[in-house]
Design brief:
single chain; mainly alpha; two-stranded antiparallel sheet
Length: 121
């Protein structure tokens, strides 16, 4: 697997699919069906949004996923430090190291695809 293949698959699994899961949960879960207090509060907030703001809510959910994924890839690449900064991480696929430029590749993919549907910034 190439680094680009990895970030494309990661983006699909973490950003795209999870955003759709949240969209489905928020759009189809009835308040009375929720048992978790967190979900009840979240559903109440979502249901209070005007219809024209609900899509913006999902754009924010997606952007949070993009930002978190980018930050994690930055740590794996060694661009972003954790704690004392003395941690050296490598992501391997078999015998091949694929980390080093994952954050940049991920952000390029995100920018390329976000241009198709308008800017997210």
């Amino acid at each position: 697997m190439t680094p680009k293949d990895f970030v494309v698959q990661l983006r699909t699994a973490v950003v795209d699919e999870n955003t759709e899961i949240y969209r489905d949960l928020f759009s189809t879960t009835a308040m009375e069906a929720a048992s978790d207090p967190y979900w009840k509060r979240a559903l109440s907030m979502f249901e209070a949004l005007p219809l024209e703001h609900r899509e913006t809510f999902f754009e924010v959910v997606r952007q949070v996923s993009v930002d978190a994924t980018s930050n994690i890839l930055g740590v794996v690449d060694g661009v972003t430090t954790m704690g004392d900064g003395n941690v050296e991480l490598r992501l391997m696929c078999g015998e091949q190291q694929i980390s080093g430029d994952l954050q940049s590749l991920f952000l390029v993919e995100e920018e390329r695809d976000s241009g198709k549907s308008g800017s997210r910034t």
